[in-house]
């Protein structure tokens, strides 16, 4: 069931691309594969007329107008896309993201981007709390590289897999929560349903 009680086939999905900016992608785990997965989703979303929305971090390390702040060229916004500036891990906090999605009649957010444990996780949970269904793209989010021997963080591949598994098993009243590989996201017919616990990469 979708957030508004409609069938899966009638849901209106938007692709959300979080913080895929030059400085951040430069420190990301498997950046090329993640960028390629998101680029494919962008092409399919635009072809289907689905909204493509970018959340773009700006702060003292990502100063607007600098090269590091810019979205990577492979994922550059196109005419008709929306860019939402943000300054917190939650892409909804103090931004116009919710207004943008509601104005387009969006009921489901397809979540991609950087970093898995911080901005991706914070935004996906907040989307659920605000009444949206969520698809976490299993191979469309990533996190930072870190030294295996000196970091208390989980290794990048373990962190991505961990969050995918959480969302595969997350139950949120009145919401549909799914994890799909990028290849299975179909904006033309609403994203395909899958049974709880179904496998997906990562």
TrEMBL record:
Keyword Hydrolase among UniProt keywords: yes
Top-level taxon: Bacteria
InterPro entries named in the record: Isochorismatase-like_dom, Isochorismatase-like_hydrls, Isochorismatase-like_sf
Keywords attached to this entry: Hydrolase
Protein name, entry field: Cysteine hydrolase family protein
A single GO molecular function term of this UniProt record: hydrolase activity
One matching Pfam family: Isochorismatase
Domain spans labelled Isochorismatase-like: 13-144
């Amino acid at each position: 069931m979708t957030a508004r009680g409609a069938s899966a086939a009638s849901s209106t999905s938007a692709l959300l691309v979080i913080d895929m900016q030059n400085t951040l992608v430069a420190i990301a785990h498997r950046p090329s594969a993640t960028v390629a997965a998101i680029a494919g989703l962008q092409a399919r979303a635009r072809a289907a007329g689905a909204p493509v929305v970018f959340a773009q971090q700006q702060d003292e390390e990502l100063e607007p107008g600098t090269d590091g702040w810019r979205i990577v060229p492979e994922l550059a916004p196109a005419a008709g896309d929306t860019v939402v500036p943000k300054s917190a891990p939650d892409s909804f906090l103090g931004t116009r993201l919710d207004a943008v999605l509601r104005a387009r009649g969006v009921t489901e957010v397809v979540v991609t981007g950087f970093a898995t444990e911080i901005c991706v996780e914070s935004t996906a949970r907040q989307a659920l709390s605000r009444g949206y269904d969520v698809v976490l793209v299993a191979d469309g989010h990533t996190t930072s590289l870190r030294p295996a021997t000196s970091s208390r963080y989980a290794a990048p591949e373990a962190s991505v897999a961990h969050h995918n598994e959480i969302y595969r098993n997350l139950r949120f009243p009145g919401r549909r929560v799914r994890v799909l590989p990028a290849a299975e996201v179909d904006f033309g017919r609403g994203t395909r349903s899958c049974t709880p616990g179904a496998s997906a990469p990562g």
